[in-house]
Amino acid sequence: MDGYNSKSCNALEKPYYKPIEAALRWCNLINHEIEILRGTGNELFPGIGVFPQWPCLRANAEKIYDAILNGGLPHGRDGRTVSPGDHVAKERLTIRHADLREWMAKNYPDQKPPFLFDEVERNTHAAINADTFRALQADRDALNVRLEKAADTFRNMKQELDAIKGERDSLRAMVDKAMTTRQRRTLLTVIAAMCKHEGLDAQARGVAQRIMEMTDDLGAHVDDGTIQTMLKEIPDALEARMK
After folding, report:
1. What is the pTM of this model?
2. Residues 6+ apart with CB under 8 A from 61
3. Long-range contacts of 189-193 (CB under 8 A, 24+ apart)
4. List of residues 6+ apart from 52 with CB closer than 8 A
5. Residues 27-69 pLDDT 10s
6. Residue pLDDT, tens place only, 67-79
7. Which tens digits make up the pLDDT trace of 157-198?
8. 3-state SS of the chain?
9. Given a cut of 90, is residue 21 above it in pLDDT?
10. Longest dimension (CA), the chain
11. Distance between CA atoms of residues 102 and 67, nearest Å
């Protein structure tokens, strides 16, 4: 039929059950319900040796009946709840769906048969309840606070690291510049020594022209203006080298 909602009810669910009806659903034996009810008759649960292929069937029916006898599970007569201790004929003994569900959740939290619990409830860990959820939520909030503090610490450390890197780069540039200065002074000292060896006064007029001609002889021309500039730096270079 158009518009029919198959999820509006649970086909395995009844308002109330006989102990054997609840037990066979607990064992997921609904496909064998007729066979089991016929084999059980008016008894509360199958006789010993009946249905040996399903040993949990009798065991679960006995658990339900034991809870009824000891006041752990409210019971009724043909679906109507009776007072604790009231005698009910075994063929008319019933348990309401809501009572059975509450009893199962309390005493067998790891057991969530589909006739009592929906898919969400079956997929929820048995240990998760309201108190546990609140505790987990508090732990999560505390972890979020710690994470935020760690993030702040990381940001501060990164800023400090960036500052250190900046200082390092500045120092490296200063070292590089210092090395270039030393090399230049060394080169000027060598030039001064060569001039002296050739009997040239590095500061005299015409020396720059003479050295330029020498570079031309080598095939590596350096103009006399550049040479003159370098020659003017020789006195300072020699003075620095002699300190």
Report:
1. 0.50
2. 19, 20, 22, 23, 44, 45, 46
3. 189/234, 189/237, 189/238, 189/241, 191/230, 191/231, 191/234, 192/234, 192/237, 192/238
4. none
5. 999 999 999 999 999 899 898 889 999 999 999 999 999 999 9
6. 999 989 999 999 9
7. 999 888 888 888 877 777 666 557 777 778 878 888 888 888
8. CCCCCCCCCCCCCCCEECHHHHHHHHCCCHHHHHHHHHHHCCCCCCCCCCCCCCHHHHHHHHHHHHHHHCCCCCCEECCEECCCCCCCCHHHEEEEHHHHHHHHHHHCCCCCCCCCCCHHHHCCCCCCCHHHHHHHHHHHHHHHHHHHHHHHHHHHHHHHHHHHHHHHHHHHHHHHHHHHHHHHHHHHHHHHHHHHHCCCCCCCCCHHHHHHHHHHHHCCCCCHHHHHHHHHCHHHHHHHHHC
9. yes
10. 138
11. 12
User: Whole-number mean pLDDT of the chain?
Assistant: 85
Structure-derived torsion over alpha carbons of residues 82, 77, 106, 19, reported in degrees to the nearest 10: 160
The C-alpha R_g of the chain, in whole angstroms, comes to: 50
Give me the amino acid identity at 39: G
What pLDDT is recorded for position 32? 95
